[in-house]
Amino acid sequence: MTDETAVRRDRFTGGPARSFLSSLAADRRLFAADLAVDRAHVVMLAEQEIIGDETAGAILGALAEIEAAGHEALPEGEDVHEAIETAVIDLIGPDGGRMHTARSRNDEVATCIRYRLREDVLGLCERLCTAREQLQAIAVDERETVMPGYTHRQSAQPTTVAHWALSYEAALARNTERLFDAYDRLNRSPLGAAAFAGTPFPIDRERTADLLGFDGLVENATDAVSARDFLLEVAAALATTAVTVSGLATDGIELASRGLVALDDDYASTSSIMPQKKNPDTLELARARVGDASGAVNAVLTTLAGLPRAYNRDLQRVTTQFWEAIDETGPAVEVAVGAIATADWPADRLAEAAGEGFATATGVADRLAMAGLPFRTAHEIVAEAAAAADGTPDVATILDAVAAHDVDPDEDALAAALSPTGSVTMRDSRGGPAPAAVTASLDRATARLERDRGLVTDRRQQLEQAATRLSTEVDRYA
Length: 478
Ligand code: ARG
Description:
Number of helices: 18
Bound molecules: arginine
Radius of gyration: 30 Å
């Protein structure tokens, strides 16, 4: 084909800003999406008799060739949308230009981003589910393994490894829910909005939405091409997930530094000079991904802020800023949780550390309050006993301190409360660390996980069924 038939090749031929304008490299990610969007649009145009069946068949045939040749084979272009259109025209001549009837790159790119992002979000949801399953498995294995719990980085109360692990599992479950919420809003089709003001052609927007597996439309044509708030929502969910991971990583790093957890060699690194070192670099690198994710929130937010209606090219930059964050968050979850899931928990050292600094004091005060003292009085008595013992008091010292009060606490119960294991066992309130309470929490967590896995499967099936519908329609024109 001659140059005149290619997309606007006679204008904007080059110049120093050419590569600055182009998103073609980053658009590799949208290659498959653009082909699907083109196919759905062409099928709809033919069904609506906006283009002839023969033209539709020729365009669809060209798209198949372009797909087989791959993104790398595309001609130069400002972006993947323009390059694919140029390639179609190169292959079949000016009739290829009918593909762009009743649409604009503005609705096209918005549709492609949403189309592609669905897959990324579902992939991340699946990863989060796997991570939750690994944390639940720790909870099953380490239900009775007591460990120190901290507030303000000071020894506070004994807990268990299971209870600690489930605290992160619960946070990851909420992160999964955030992604599902964002998914339901992002899975709407902007296609057919054209530049921002609709089209005079008798298009069928519901039809293209259905062929592409969308749940509905972004109705208003100007909103459809302008909206990128779905990117902001997903970026926020990524950042929240990265924050969760960073907390888990820091706990792991600190526990490892005190010899309270032993990371598997697969997740550790060595020093180039200090021969004895085993460093938790994987957890540090996972923790650092919070920088990538929060960077994306800032980038998307500040780039979107103040953009006027309708389409502005700033939006191209928002997309490239965003992709990196979603690519970095999944591996951070996988590696951080993998490091914790394969680690060894030294039960004896953990139990010893769990009792340090009179961490069982609260349980002793609870026992005195259960014997009838106001909790505040019990709190003071236990503090006095600790001062008298210069550390963790024994039962006799506690009984001495309580002697002036008209209560008769059970000595065995006090002795149990003084031990880290007994201290954990008595805290059996819903959501507490007692093994029985953890068992009940685990049941709820596994049910929630199964539900979320089902949601991923359902959504994937919906997308696969749409892809099948689309390829069946495309085959009619072969
Ligand atoms: N590559 C562009 C993007 O990502 C596609 C839309 C270009 N539209 C336009 N009117 N210049 O946003």
